Amino acid sequence: MRSMTGVFLTLFLSPLFSLYHSLHCDSETEYSSDGKCCSKCKPGERLDKVCTPTSPTKCVPCRGGYYSDRYDEARNCHRCSDCSMIRKYMRSCCTTTHNAVCGCERGYQCKSEPCLDCEKITTPDAGKDTTTTKEVSTAPGVKPVKEGPSSSMWSTHIVLIVCCCTLLIFVILISRNKNELRWIWRTTKGQFKFFLAICKNATQQY
To answer: Which cystines does this chain contain (predicted)?
Structure first.
């Protein structure tokens, strides 16, 4: 009778003890198999054979192009992300323990994280007339600075100043002959004043 009771208790209590033990496995680094806590494979490895009552878990390294970034009992590693697609580039290479990190070319942004696809960046000002004065972005708390005159405006001013200076030099050179100077002054008086006004206006732009 006692032997029958012992057998009954063994059959009834063994699953309970196994369940209790399995519930106390470290969920991060262990998994339960047949009532035993078995070690998960480390990052960079995959499961080859599960543990048994007489042997531990057998793991093998991930092959090239695959990775595992956490403790796991999966039989397959994860495929590395492909950064060779259009508009994408590789920011960091894939290893057996870390996935590749992809980025998008200038003018494009990732649709999601991880970066699986790129989309063109659109701004609210796209398509608007940009001929008005633009402001240059600065750091927070600093007032934006307006852009100065374009290079074509500076070129025009320089040409006018050079012409005015040339005219003045010409007048000085021939001023030794007063008769010629009086004649030039009478014939070019209006044009001379016009050039002086232009020169004055151009120099005030600097």
So the answer is: 38-51, 41-59, 62-77
Reported as a single tens digit per residue, the pLDDT across 23-36 is 578 889 999 888 88
DSSP state of 27: T
| Of the listed ranges 71-80, 108-117, 118-127, 128-137, the one predicted with least confidence | 128-137
What are the domain boundaries of the chain?
Answer: 26-79, 81-123, 155-203
- Whether the CB-CB separation of 192 and 185 falls below 8 Å is answered with yes
Query: What's the pLDDT at 119?
Result: 92
Q: Does domain 26-79 have CATH number 1.10.3720.10?
A: no
CATH topology of domain 81-123: Tumor Necrosis Factor Receptor, subunit A; domain 2 (2.10.50)
185 Cβ contact partners less than 8 Å away, ≥ 6 residues apart: 192
Place of tokens 């495929």: 79
